[in-house]
Specification:
Elements lengths: L13 E5 L4 H13 L4 E5 L13 H13 L7 E11 L20 H11 L9 E11 L5 E12 L15 E3 L6 H4 L1 H7 L1 H19 L2
Parallel strand pairs: 1-2, 1-3
Antiparallel strand pairs: 3-4, 4-5, 5-6
Length: 214
């Protein structure tokens, strides 16, 4: 896969503004777009408005981020927002919507991961089930809004391993595999991940809209 597929330079390439300044997310979504063979360019939010993610749900938080960015862009702009999280059975579903700040409001990804590893130390191997959830909200002109959900089941291993990915990837082993997301590589992760599965649904919707427009 090349960094700049020719399709992005052709007329008709749709630009989608991602409601995030996280370079990992921007890169991951661009890779998903390229793999789906859609003429899309994913743009990072240059000045993402401050958003308090206090709705208590993935859908609510994603919608809030999408609307905040759309409000500062031209009316014709397309905006994509996601809210994702890890839900651990043994922790009653936590960290869930608090995944990004599990260890505190200003916690780093490494600190969140360290807290999770520590909280899970006494949990037996046969009860370490977990799943990632991703909600995508795509907002377009004339009040268009579409919501897509993806989920990836798996389990947590005891210690982090692998240098790829980000967040909780070093401890999450997807169902059917014996390596973490951080070890499997971007291509495999994008195919299996919660974000990849939500994107597949979004891509199908975009294709159907293109067919309607001829």
């Amino acid at each position: 896969m090349t960094d700049s597929p020719p399709d992005r330079d052709r007329p008709g390439c749709r630009r989608i503004h991602l409601a995030s300044g996280n370079p990992h997310k921007v890169q991951e979504f661009q890779q998903l777009a390229d793999a789906s063979d859609l003429r899309l360019e994913i743009l990072p939010a240059v000045k993402m408005p401050s958003v308090v993610e206090d709705t208590g749900s993935f859908v609510g938080n994603a919608r809030k981020k999408a609307m905040a960015l759309k409000a500062v862009l031209p009316p014709t702009a397309w905006v994509l927002a996601d809210d994702s999280g890890l839900c651990v059975d043994a922790l009653g579903g936590a960290p869930s919507v608090e995944s990004a700040y599990y260890a505190g409001p200003k916690a780093t990804g490494a600190q969140n991961l360290a807290k999770l590893v520590d909280r899970m130390r006494s949990v037996p191997d046969n009860t370490r089930q977990a799943h990632f959830v991703c909600i995508l909200v795509l907002a377009g002109p004339d009040g268009i809004e579409q919501v897509f959900e993806g989920r990836c089941n798996g389990r947590l291993q005891r210690e982090p391993s692998g240098k790829g990915g980000f967040g909780y990837d070093p401890v999450f082993v997807p169902e059917g595999y014996n390596r973490t997301f951080a070890e499997l590589g971007e291509e495999v992760k994008n195919r299996l991940s919660h974000r990849g599965r939500a994107w597949t649904k979004l891509a199908e919707w975009l294709r159907s809209e293109e067919r309607k427009q001829g």
